[in-house]
Amino acid sequence: MENLGDILKRLDATRASSGPVNTPVENSEQDSEGSTYELPAVACDSCRGRGWFTPDVPAGHPEFGAILTCDCQRDRLSEERSARLFRYSNLGQLARFTFDTLNPDGLSDDPDD
What we know:
Oligomer: single chain
Strand order of the largest sheet: 1-2
Number of helices: 2
Number of strands: 4
Shape: elongated
Order of helices and strands: HEEEEH
């Protein structure tokens, strides 16, 4: 089995001899065949659509290496949770009832009232 250090040295030597690396166009990637294609627009500038990020802090900081949930992901998760709770609660049929439409005195004994 080949040593990882030897493989990395060989890769560095190959990259150095091949000249400067072409910088990719922003919002583009290359597939396995070398074709460049444009990536879809990123919805969030903070996490670039991943839903998480690592804070840019120096080594030794308590949040160094931590993975934090992005605000866009947190909002989406909160909305999904609310929708799921509403769906499981079966309160959808009761949405027509409000404090304005209910009779605060309750039902009377007189059916005509």
